[in-house]
Amino acid sequence: MCTHIPALEESGFMVTLDKHIWQIAPTDRDQGRSTQIISSMLEMAQSLHLPVEVEGVETNEQANMLRQMGARYAQGFLYYRPMPAKDFEALLDGGNNN
Q1: Is residue 98 part of a domain?
Q2: Which residues are catalytic?
Q3: Which of 32, 35, 84, 85 is at 20 to 30 A from 4, Cα to Cα?
Q4: What distances in angstroms separate CA 1 from CA 6, 8, 39, 44, 48, one per listed residue?
Q5: What CATH code is carried by the domain that includes residue 31?
Q6: Using CA atoms, how far apart are residues 3 and 77, in angstroms rounded to an integer?
Q7: How far apart are CA 87 and CA 2, in angstroms?
């Protein structure tokens, strides 16, 4: 298996933690458990030199935690909500179509 890891990296393979990762232990009592699971998954991917994208980021606290853990890619409602293609194109062009 270890011989396949460099091929995955060279092919642009990315590990994605989907938005349900935040629902593993949603209560405050279990916050430490949820954080440990996310941290362990990030560490494993990072040790294999595979980039990780975390989906479902909705709060600044989540974004800060991920940044501290070394996550480089994230997406979620914190950054933008779904939008029509024309609004996205305007955003890319530097305009605001609201």
Answers
A1: no
A2: 55
A3: 35
A4: 10, 11, 23, 15, 12
A5: 3.20.20.450
A6: 37
A7: 44
